[in-house]
Amino acid sequence: MTDYKLILGNKTYSSWSLRGWLVVRLAGIPCGEMVIPLRKPGTRADIQKYTPAGKVPTLLVDGEAVWDSLAIAEYLAESFPEKGLWPADPAARRLARCVAAEMHSSFTALRGALPMDLSKHYPGHKISAGVQADIDRIQQIWRDCRGRFGAGGDFLFGRTSIADAFYAPVVTRFRTYDVQLDTVTAAYCDAVTAWPAMQEWTAAAGGETEVIIFD
Ligand SMILES: N[C@@H](CCC(=O)N[C@@H](CS)C(=O)NCC(=O)O)C(=O)O
Fold this sequence. Notes:
The structure is a single chain. By secondary structure, this protein is α+β, with helices and mostly antiparallel strands. The chain has helices at residues 15-27, 43-48, 69-79, 90-105, 108-113, 129-149, 162-176, 183-194, 196-206; strands at residues 4-8, 32-35, 58-61, 64-67. It folds into two domains: 4-82, Glutaredoxin, CATH 3.40.30; 85-200, Glutathione S-transferase Yfyf (Class Pi), Chain A, domain 2 (Up-down Bundle), CATH 1.20.1050. The chain is built from nine helices and four strands; from the N terminus they run βαβαββααααααα. The protein has a four-stranded mixed β-sheet with strand order 2-1-3-4, covered by helices on one side. α1 links the parallel β1 and β2. The longest helix is centred in the middle third of the chain and has 21 residues, at 129-149. The relative contact order is 0.16.
């Protein structure tokens, strides 16, 4: 039987780790996990024991590293086609791949200014124009997916998929920084927050003691 182990950063702060972890949950495979606290003097060396890239998440498959959240997602989707990690409908799947890739490569203003921090809530947080442009584009994506392919459930493509795993950390940022949303995207955020896997991650984050102070 294949042995799976996921190397993660702090659940409170590591947005890429959350994506990889949710994708593993979607695959429903038994998978061990190890958290390596981020932003410590030994962090990079500790992660490099498992992956030359020195980044989390990294999925060890019989000890062999699959690094980068998107590579992990594609590897698991290919390995477990019966689990439907991407939507079944070809047009929906095409769009799901686009929006997951856009999340993976874009929104640098949002990522820089609103770091994921599950331990905090900042009511009335001031949003810059650059960050607002990212927020507007993300809402446009969510409305488009929900409007075209969301009828079968509460997620971007109805039932949960890799696309939701990729946007889940954004949902937490919107909550932490009190981002104002339209009714469609606010309802989507409620669905992601209520996703049992998200609740499980959030509860585990609540038990962490490491604190990272962002600029
Ligand atoms: N594109 C990568 C990004 C991974 C990444 O930047 N991970 C951060 C934590 S969220 C990391 O490993 N930081 C450790 C370091 O920079 O030392 C992915 O999708 O997995």
